[in-house]
Structure formats: structure tokens, C-alpha cells
């Protein structure tokens, strides 16, 4: 059963029983009782956060009218000025930037490993989902109240729409049943039914698009003069260029989906993944594409992933080219990361340790760094500490890899097997939970690792006293937490003090314990006959 959080205990301190708005107003935390609450972990320095926040703002505007939904911003900004500049765009609440302890506690309690991250608590304080970012990106306000039942309902509606696809299901989204005209008027999608409609995917600043728009304008005019029942609907793909959208719509006598509309992303994703092959977007065509994609996955090789034309190599630490063919037959982790990203800089040293551990027992293993750094000097500085291979800075394959593995945030770790097929796109979570023991990242192996942990847990004491904490610690099943002994993320089990929200990973909690029967320094024999030494517990 999911934990139920008391919002006052979660968000307040002895000195503070309020949250703040961007105008400085204080809002009592007890006023949030009975509301659905989003905890938004974000920061101004984070490009994916800055990209997602405007979408969340639009969703919040729609949901705030209900009166039973609120968001609390939990900032990872480094200074007051950055915090205030970013927070000024948000109309919701925030934990004060100065309250570092509360922000840290929230991050640990909800196992926040990267940003943006949105946790939704229901009206009873229970976690509805930790995947709020994905749900808002895909469904917007329609996802409310973000329960599994609602998500299942949306999926069923989407499947039904695919089975009965028509122009309305293709172009409408939620309560929006219109497109807009070049003179900014709303036109019902139903008025387009029965006509030949061209969907024009366009990026205004891209020269081939601007050139083609001129030609398309001429063709549209000729067809209209001939009395052809033909219309164009503009699908504008650059969500950072509203002026470009307005210019394209004014230049081309057509209709358009509203700027940054949710439906654009869904249609663009089909085009992005399948190109012109996605046409005509019918259920039969999508089913056909799904089968093609399944066949591609089964026939996938490392070279099909990493080789593009003459780009058939990665680089080593000296900058020398390493042919991709030399990596065939190895386990490969593709590491999406960047110097500007604090979660990446925190994770990388841990990954370096794990890399050496795995290499010590399996030489047919390698990591390839795929950089999201903004300039080459940052890439060089960051890569200098890494012992593995990399794509060259600015390599065009980065875009195709990010698209193929649907990388929406970093750090991200994708595991590829010796046959070249994808094992998992969630290797980062597996490494965080199990360290080097996660290798080779297959479902069967992870299942065995978890079973071993459960078997060992039977032999651990139910309670213990540790020098790092004043109270008795209780063996507790915990889905995710940060160990107060080593600051690493823990999973499955903790020795926990509920009163103080204090956690020790069993590795930390048990390694300094001494059995009355076992006198060897650094070892502990548990009740069930296990010996724990260093970070390993095994049966006697």
C-alpha cells in the first residue's frame, strides 16, 4: 500500500508553515489539504526544464480553474537571482530557495534522480505518479487527476480513435475541435471533412521550408482557381518561434493547428520516426509501421545503430578513431550526459567506479559517451575524466540516437547486448539500484539479483542500533531513498527511523556491526547465519 504523506510534515519546518508566490505572498500549507498536488523539481540552468515549464504553465492554467489542483516548485537553482528570475514565470507556489533542508528531503523522499521531475500526490497525500512530466507532455490537462485509471482511460480512447480514425480524430485534441485560419479565426474541423486536406509540416527558419512554402502557395492558388476542393493545414514544428509561425500562416492561405498544440507533437513524432511512410496515418498504416519497427528491433545490430555513412567510428581518450566494428560482440552502454547538468556530474563519478568494476570481470564491455554539451571546450573538460569512448563533439549521430531511444532527460544510460539488440533504456536506474551487480542488465539477471537481496534480507536483524543515529533503526522495505551514511541511492530495503526519516542502506548499517560469535574485524554474523564484509553479505 502506498505511503500517505501529511503535507504539513512534508513541506513545513518549525520556523515556516507557509509556501511563497512569486510576488512574495505567503500561503499557509494547511490550505493545500484535500487538493491534488504536483511537486515540480526544476531549475533555470536546466535546458529540458526550461523547455518543459511553458507546457506545465499552460496545463496549470487549465487545471487551476478547478480549484482543487496546485503545484509546488522545488528549485535546484544555485542563487536567489536565478530562482527569482525563473519563478517569476510561474503562477504556482514554491518552497523558499533558502530552505535547503526541505528541498533536499523532498528530493530524497521521492528519489529524484534528474530534472525536470513532477510527482503528483492525490487528495489523500498518496503518490499518484512520479511520471508527471511524461503525462503532461503527452496528455496535458487531460491527464488530470493523473491516476492510473485516468491514464488507462486515455489510452483506451486513443486506441478507439485509431480504430475509427478520421479528420476529426487526426486534428482535434481534447476540447479543441477547431483549426485556425490565416486571419486568426477559429474554424471547425468538421468544415474540412469531405475535402482533400494536405498536412504541411514546416519549420519557418529552415530555408528549404521557406522556399517550399512559396511554391506551395502558388500551387494552392492554382488549384483553388480550378475549383478543386483542396485545403492545407499547417503543422508548425518549431515551438520556440511563434513569430515564424505567424509569418508562415500569413504567407500561406491555409489553416493551422494552434501554435504549440499537443497534437503537433504526436503527429511530429510519427513523422520523426517514420517519415513519409507514416502517411496516411490510418490505423492500418500505424499497425503496419509497428510490425516494421518490431522487425527492425529484432534485426538491430550495433553497426545499424552507430554507423551513418562514413561516420563508422567513435573516438578514444587520445582522440583517435575506433571503428565501430571493433565493438561488435561486446556489451555497450550508450551514455547520454552533459557537463552543464548537475545530476550528470553527480552520476558520472559513480559510473566510472562501476565501469572499472565491470571491466575487471568482463573485458567485452564498453561505454560510449554521447554529449549534450553546448560547446567543445565543455565537452573536452567533461570527457577528460571519463575512461571510456565517445562520439566526437557535434556528431550528427547524436540526434538520431536520442530520437531512437526517446531520450527526454539526462543522464540516460542505454544497454546494448553482444548481438547489437537493445537490452534496456533504463540502465541508469538499474545501476543506481544495484551498481556493478546490474551487469549484464537483462530482465532475468535483474530478477536473480533481486531474489538474492530478498534471500539475504531474511538474515538481517529486524532492528539495530547504529553509531550514526540516536534511535533504533528498523528493517523496512523502501522503494527509493538516499542513504544517510554514504549518500548513495538505496533500493528495496533500509534500516529506517520513521521519526527522523533517517535511512541506512544495509551495506552501511551492517558492515560495522559485530557478531558476538564472530570476532573478525569488519564482519557480522546475522541471526540467519550470514556474514557481511565490506559491501557484500553472504551465507556462511
Automatic annotation (TrEMBL):
The UniProt GO MF terms for this protein read: thioredoxin-disulfide reductase (NADPH) activity
**Which residue intervals define the domain Thioredoxin in the entry?**
1-156, 291-451
Q: Which InterPro entries match?
A: C1-like_sf, DC1, Nucleoredoxin-like, Thioredoxin-like_fold, Thioredoxin-like_sf, Thioredoxin_CS, Thioredoxin_domain, TryX_NRX_thioredoxin_dom
Catalytic activity, reaction form = [protein]-dithiol + NADP(+) = [protein]-disulfide + NADPH + H(+); [protein]-dithiol + NAD(+) = [protein]-disulfide + NADH + H(+)
Q: What is its EC number?
A: 1.8.1.8
What CDD domains does the record point to?
TryX_like_TryX_NRX
NAD among keywords: yes
Mind telling me what this protein is named? protein-disulfide reductase
